[in-house]
Specification:
Elements: E1 2-5, H1 13-25, E2 37-40, H2 48-57, E3 63-66, H3 68-77, E4 83-87, E5 107-111, H4 117-128, E6 134-139, H5 146-160, E7 163-168, H6 175-184, E8 189-192, H7 196-200, H8 202-212, E9 216-218, H9 221-226, E10 230-234, H10 236-251, E11 267-272, H11 273-278, H12 285-290, E12 293-295
Parallel strand pairs: 1-2, 1-3, 3-4, 4-5, 6-7, 6-8, 8-9, 9-10, 11-12
Antiparallel strand pairs: 10-11
Helix pairs in contact: 1-10, 2-3, 4-5, 6-8
Length: about 300
């Protein structure tokens, strides 16, 4: 099988471990009963089509595509080889499948987005910093998963009476410029949209936000572990563990188009108390009690 990810191997290690564990539980032992060809995009989306083509040339039996850019590249590379996706967008709205219930074609898998997910991130930010009115939204427009996150953020911002400042970064060289724009426009907090490139450079984002004294919320645990104030999103380890069941069913003869796309069932809230103290913020006790992990 092939494993195609938009990010790096190190950034995806915990997800890969969960996927491998899922395979082992189903009787697949890497190197013995199953061989896996890995291809990492390293946050450079323009190289993904070539990597996907390499997997097709190897005639793998199934491709697991992590992130929306990898899923799009795999879709363009083959209409025959089954593809199992784990993406942060609506696969039907993105044109990856016909519908969640009946995907059709050669693609199925799991979506990591659920209704109100990005809205919940803004709600949490407002709960910790009630007086904020202007939030910068940092996203990568090259990622097809960015647009649906932005739409949800805009809808939630109206309800929360927040003004959003959309800031783009297509590559690491644009992150500093993005922060300069936030400061110039007097943003009071930051929402970082889920993206492999931004995830790969999360420490740079943490350093810049700390220097600017701006609280940051995102959708990935590893951002909060690196130093962002909070993260709330689908439990990606669980999603990738479940992806193994799709591979198993396909290898046993199931057609991808007949396997419904699943939405996330487990979510996690991570709060970095050390960052909160550095910013002079007090996390409400009720919020701390709801957290799955508190970093001190």
């Amino acid at each position: 099988m092939g494993f195609l990810a938009a990010g790096s191997g190190s950034d995806n290690q915990s997800y890969l471990n969960a996927f491998r564990q899922g395979l082992r539980e189903l009787g697949y032992v890497e190197g013995r009963s199953i061989a896996i060809e890995y291809r990492w995009g390293e946050g450079k989306y323009e190289g993904l089509p070539k990597l996907a083509a390499e997997l097709v040339h190897l005639k793998v039996d199934v491709i697991v595509a992590v992130n929306a850019p990898a899923a799009q590249a795999a879709k363009q590379a083959t209409k025959e080889i089954p593809i199992v996706i784990t993406v942060l967008l609506d696969p039907a709205a993105a044109g990856l499948v016909t519908s969640l219930a009946r995907p059709g074609g050669n693609i199925t898998g799991l979506s990591m987005i659920a209704p109100d997910l990005v809205g919940k991130q803004l709600e949490l930010l407002k709960e910790v910093v009630p007086k904020i009115s202007r939030v910068a939204v940092l996203g990568n427009p090259s990622n097809p998963g960015t647009a649906p996150q932005l739409r949800e953020a805009k809808g939630a911002a109206q309800a929360l009476e927040l003004q959003l400042q959309l800031v783009e970064a297509r590559g690491p060289s644009e992150i500093d410029r993005a922060f300069a724009a936030m400061i110039r426009e007097r943003a009071e907090a930051i929402l970082v949209l889920v993206d492999a490139m931004l995830g790969s450079h999360r420490e740079r984002i943490v350093n810049l936000s700390a220097k600017s004294r701006l609280p940051v919320v995102s959708g990935l645990r590893r951002h909060a572990e690196a130093g962002d104030l909070m993260a709330y999103g689908a439990n990606r380890v669980d999603v990738h563990h479940r992806a193994a069941t799709y591979v198993d069913k396909i290898l046993k003869g199931a057609k991808p188009g007949d396997l419904p796309v699943e939405q996330p069932t487990k979510f996690e809230l991570v709060i970095n108390l050390k960052t909160a103290k550095a910013l002079g913020l007090t996390i409400p006790p009720s919020l701390l009690q709801r957290a799955d992990q508190v970093i001190e």
